[in-house]
Amino acid sequence: MSPVVTRFAPSPTGFMHVGGARTALFAWLYARQKGGRFILRIEDTDKEREVAGSIPHIIESLSWLGIEWDEGPDKGGPRAPYIQSERLTLYRSYAEKLAAAGHAYPDPYSEAELEALRTNAEAEKRPFLYRDHRPEGTEPWDGKKPLRFRAPRIARYEWDDVVRGRLSAGEEAIDDFILIKSDGYPTYNFAHIVDDIEMKVTHVIRGEEFISSTPKYLSVYEALGEAPPAFATMPPILGPTGTKKLSKRDGAKDILDYRSDGYLPVALMNFLALLGWNPGTDREFFSPKELTDEFSLERIQISGARFDETKLRSMNQHWMRLLSTDAFIRHLGVRPPSDGEKLSKAVPLLKERAQTFKEAQEMLSGELSCLFDKPILAKEQLLAKELPDRPGLALSGLRKLSEIVGSLPDDVTAQAVKDALMPAADNEESAGQAGKGGRGAILWPLRYALSGKERSPDPFTLISILGREESLVRIREAIGILER
Ligand code: GLU
Question: Count of domains in the chain?
Answer without folding.
Answer: 1
